[in-house]
Amino acid sequence: MINLNGSIVDQQQAQIPFNNRGTYYGDGVFETLRCYEGKPLLFEAHYFRLMASMRILRMEIPQSFTPEFIEEEITNLLAKNNFTQGHARVRFTVWRKPGGFYTPQDRNVEFAIESSEIDGKYQNPSSREVELFKDHHVVSGMLGNLKTAQKMVNILAGIYAQENDYQDMLLINEKKMVVESISGNLFLRSGDTIKTPPLSDGCLNGIMREQVLSQLKMMLNYKVEETTITPFELQRADELFTTNMIRGVQSIHKYRKKAYETTCADELIELINGRYFGA
Question: What PROSITE patterns would the database entry show (predicted)?
Fold first, then answer.
């Protein structure tokens, strides 16, 4: 079952207009939430990011889109799909109503919520090799910080990884600086210094990115910097890892001929699992 504009309907029966602007122009935004025991984690952070994204994209925010309304819609769907125990993934998608060409005739929105079961607590993968994706680049600036429905660079990078037997790809911006991976923010450790690209470089304003930054700043054994990362730094680093809400912290084990440690990522995973899942 899914939630389509506030109604719980069977996924196979759900219908949206063929000319919806999400399909035609990528005119939409979404949030991906990790849920535990029937409740979304860090809901407030997701809610305010969604509202900020809708404002930046000049969408008309419905008066009904209060934190209480959206959280209740999510928890009701989780209950309907029997996801009140264990772990689940929820995607909340918003798109502008049909009409117009590039310029919309109607700034009002429609929405859908879908949920699926996922495995247990966060775990670090045993093997993950990456490469630099140079065919296309993300654009630095504010639009790159949003989870929009238009993710063509990520899609093409995913196809490249699939065709070449990589587990992820690192994306660069128009200045040839390393920005993020296909589905997560990037962190680089050299000695006791940990770097992550600033939002101005075009990386996603990730919820887990903020959680990891806050955690690292409390750990006295590391110095944290939000600064540009060049491709040349990748092979000189001691450790690379990526973050997102669904997978948590994931180590990168190999880039070209360079093999990496997993020390900091392992430590973060243990701390984050303890905070959210009590284990």
Answer: AA_TRANSFER_CLASS_4 (PS00770)
